[in-house]
Amino acid sequence: MENRKFVKFLILNLFMAMISLPFFCLAYDDKTTHPALTDEAVDLFNYYYQDYKLTDQEKEIIKKGSRDEDNAPRWVNHFYDPVYNQGWLGNLTSKQWAQSVPAQSGVYQTTSSGLSFNYFDSVSDYSWERAVFEYADRDKTRGLLALGHVLHLIQDMAVPDNTRNDVHPPILNMGSPYEGWASRFTDENFQLAEQLIINKEKQIIFNSLDEYFDSLAKYSNNNFFSKDTIFDEDYKLPISDGEKQISNIFFIYKKISDQEEILLARKYKIYNPVSLKYLNSYTVKDEYDAVVTSYWGFLSKQAVLNSAGVIKLFFEEVEKERQTLALKQKDSTFFEKLFGSIFGSISRSLKNIFDLTFQG
Amino acid sequence: MKFLNSFFWKSTLGFILILAISLFLLWLSADPQSEEFLKQEQLAKDTEELYKNDIYGGETPEQTLQMFIDALKAGDTDLASKYFMVDKQKEWRNKLIESKEKNNIDGFVSVLESVDIKKEGKKLFDGNYQFIHPLQNEKLPWIIDLVLNPLTNKWKIESL
Question: Which of A220, A230, A346, B24 is the most buried (most CB within 10 A)?
């Protein structure tokens, strides 16, 4: 049964990958930006948690996972609007996708999962539970690869377009200007962990993956604009604290603290051919890339701090699993559990009879 | 005893048969290609097709803007709207029809021709270009925003 499912799913994936991969890239660039953010997150984690220190080889496996998550058709589930709790066009939110073994296994609407095949068997499943299960109970490499996939989803929450339900045709540079601009960062030219360590900034700590998704999605949704949601009536935030002129350009900004502010957008004029009048408008593009640079300064830092926190949570969950074996039990098929239970009962009964006969 | 034996075996066989049929039905239902999944894929394919087939525009931002002005001068609002990005074409088709009905196209063209195409263009990051036109007695400039469709290598108007 699993072979048939696997072959069908593989054929479908190969087909979709062939037709889609050259054209589609969503949120941060999967070849450059995601590995860059993941690289820094691992460095930050390694500095603060020497006991768990990940080797260079392990880091590369996690980075590979963070690259692969954009493979078709996974990217349709990479959106999470925390204001309306929705994904793209009714698809799963990325928060749900990251934690849904059935959805990632390609079995959306089946009742037979776990009946006669193992719960964690699908080749396309890189969910959070799978990551923990593999690392703790079966295959460490597969576990780290799945962790990389989850980090990709967390980092996407630091892209306003992904959290403000603003999905553009994701065709190379025709998507979000912020994402297009940020694709210049690679694991070779992006350095942040060292600066964070100097500033004594630590990874963000939460007790669940849900909290990471909610916190980062709200941060990017409430403080930044995406291309087509500038002062959109669907979103009350962010609110501009005023206008300022830099060189010859007028920007609107939002104050974060006494020293820090986000350049929200450039103010300019558009022309209405019906009324023949110029109207005010706003854009995240400007000739100095000042707005997208400002966004990157805040969002990349949050992406790294949250990713490092998720790595910490991952190792805590692995420890828990090693003690409880809860996921290992979940992985057993229905028949394994049934027969395990029957043979277990017989074995326990025989042991009791033996004990009563020879020791009682 | 013979009856009991016969009943026992019939019941056992019946149970096994029901179990086998149930498992077969469950196996059939374990189809990874849910309707939702296929719908998503179709949507992605359709979007890509739209952009692949969008052949309207120039090889440079300057050419696209000039083609847009020429279409307006010829009164072809339908063609003019096709120089916009795919997701903006419908909105602009309606705007241009309304402008034409109000006899405002000529006024629009003269405003567009006030842009110095050779001097006011500015390349932003990859695939992004703007004409930044200063306005008299205004601190804010008028910006015409263009992006490159990499599937056709044509420049498209994003906002104006």
Answer: A220
